[in-house]
Amino acid sequence: MTVRFELRQRIAAPVADVAGALCDPAYYVALGRAPKLGAPEVLGRETDGDDVVMRIRFRFSGDLSAAARAVLDPEKLTWVEESHHDLAARTVRFELHPDHYADRLSCRGRYRLVADPADDGATIRTAEGDVKVRAPLVGSSVEKALISGLREHLEAEADIVATFVNGS
């Protein structure tokens, strides 16, 4: 079964600056402060006008439930996020490529950045996508845990990107 998610955050920085930060390798050094993730490793960045492709390796460093540990080794929870940024449209398509468990885990989606209608100096990021875990008996609980972790990560990331953009 595939679980659909939609998450929304307010980022206290202008939309063009947020879009640019998400394509800046230096930003991913700051992102290493996010909970439950190790320091990201930028593997590649390709630019063609307003289009930027980023490849970044992430490592999960949080705690997993007993159900999740029954099917996943926490030491093997690493993946490469490939993201396609359209700076003009302020949209991003992403797909996660697990280093391990590619036959059991998949996640893809997109997000869009828009100026906050209540505060044009801020950004609203709406992320939506699909998570699928193929694991008998525990797949749905692992999917819920992954989406919960994604929500926590994006909430923490909102503060990190705002700090990065605002230079404080």
Any overview of this molecule?
The protein has a seven-stranded antiparallel β-sheet with strand order 1-7-6-5-4-3-2. It is α+β, with helices and mostly antiparallel strands and 168 residues long. It has a single domain, classed as START domain (Alpha-D-Glucose-1,6-Bisphosphate, Chain A, domain 4, 2-Layer Sandwich). It starts with a strand and ends with a helix. It is globular. The longest helix has 28 residues, at 139-166. It is 28% helix and 42% strand. It has four helices and seven strands; from the N terminus they run βααββαββββα.
The gist of it:
With 168 residues, the protein is α+β, with helices and mostly antiparallel strands.
Keywords:
168 residues; 4 helices; seven-stranded antiparallel β-sheet; Alpha-D-Glucose-1,6-Bisphosphate, Chain A, domain 4; alpha+beta; 28% helix
For this structure, the CATH topology is Alpha-D-Glucose-1,6-Bisphosphate, Chain A, domain 4
- CATH H-level superfamily title: START domain
List the secondary-structure elements in sequence, H or E: EHHEEHEEEEH
CATH class: Alpha Beta
Can you name the CATH architecture? Answer: 2-Layer Sandwich
User: Helix segment count?
Assistant: 4
The strand line-up of the biggest sheet is 1-7-6-5-4-3-2
Number of domains: 1
Spell out the blueprint of helices and strands.
Layout: E1 2-11, H1 15-21, H2 25-30, E2 41-48, E3 51-59, H3 66-71, E4 78-86, E5 91-98, E6 105-116, E7 119-133, H4 139-166
Antiparallel strand pairs: 1-7, 2-3, 3-4, 4-5, 5-6, 6-7
